[in-house]
Amino acid sequence: MSVKWEGIMPAVTTKFNDDDTLDFAMFETNLKAQLDAGVHGIVLGGTLGEASTLTESEKRSLTKSTVDMVKGKVPVMITLAEQSTKAAVKAANMAEEDGASGLMMLPPMRYKSTDRETLEFFNSVAINTSLPIMVYNNPVDYKIEITHKMFDELLKHDNIEAVKESTRNTMNITRIKNRFGDRLKIMTGVDTIAFESMVLGADGWVAGLVCAFPEETVAMYELIKAGQIKEALDIHRWFMPLFELDIVPELVQNIKLAEVYTGLGTENVRAPRLPLIGDERKFAIKTIEESLKTRPALPDYKNL
């Protein structure tokens, strides 16, 4: 399946049973809610997916199961977050074998590569897979920036098609559009600035709180796309306290707790992560409960 880099693509959480095995039953419950809400793609194995704790076998099972559950309704992307070039190429090949539609690819993990090394890392994967690639540019968290000059080089590969823009600098939306036009699609990757990013021209949103609130997230996107900015802004302002749960180190625990409240998940995380306790838990619960009390009535956003 080809990938249209637009719309809402949930960075879905990985569900675990109490015995720390993959919980495919709850995962399917959440996935169905995403599809029913009208999402445009699924992103597996990112930060929210706790990919750093998953085994190779689990990642492959997750990919194959998701492809089977989705049944071609939307593309399924798997995240590449590897420490070596060799491992990244292998992961890309396995993703292709397992039926993934595309890749969300991070720079080398742990080692802070130079620009030349980073380019070679992406180049090596691009020439060894036919899958379309979305480059995840998040220098805030991963300390490596893929600059626009570097994209000049990377876009020589036809299958490098999009960027998950997570620099937190919304000026980059316009800079990318001015420099690359539609050659480089832009998926905003930070919930708190998704509204303004899409108004400025981002093609879509790799979202986090969508895991617990899929309808509100898709409604925001569709309203912006239809030019109903005021209506979208109202949802954005309601959403902001929840969005801020996604920009802290405990984002996985926060969003999984929100999923519990909306019936779309459990709190189970994989160690070294632990469920929230104390003031952090109280704050998250207060934020979620207050937001649920004022949950907005949504328009018929699927028929705008």
UniProtKB/TrEMBL annotation:
<feature type="active site" description="Schiff-base intermediate with substrate">
    <location>
        <position position="164"/>
    </location>
</feature>
<dbReference type="InterPro" id="IPR013785">
    <property type="entry name" value="Aldolase_TIM"/>
</dbReference>
<dbReference type="GO" id="GO:0019262">
    <property type="term" value="P:N-acetylneuraminate catabolic process"/>
</dbReference>
<feature type="binding site">
    <location>
        <position position="206"/>
    </location>
    <ligand>
        <name>pyruvate</name>
    </ligand>
</feature>
<dbReference type="GO" id="GO:0005829">
    <property type="term" value="C:cytosol"/>
</dbReference>
<dbReference type="Pfam" id="PF00701">
    <property type="entry name" value="DHDPS"/>
</dbReference>
<keyword id="KW-0456">Lyase</keyword>
<feature type="active site" description="Proton donor/acceptor">
    <location>
        <position position="136"/>
    </location>
</feature>
<dbReference type="GO" id="GO:0008747">
    <property type="term" value="F:N-acetylneuraminate lyase activity"/>
</dbReference>
<dbReference type="InterPro" id="IPR002220">
    <property type="entry name" value="DapA-like"/>
</dbReference>
<protein>
    <submittedName>
        <fullName>Dihydrodipicolinate synthase family protein</fullName>
    </submittedName>
</protein>
<comment type="similarity">
    <text>Belongs to the DapA family.</text>
</comment>
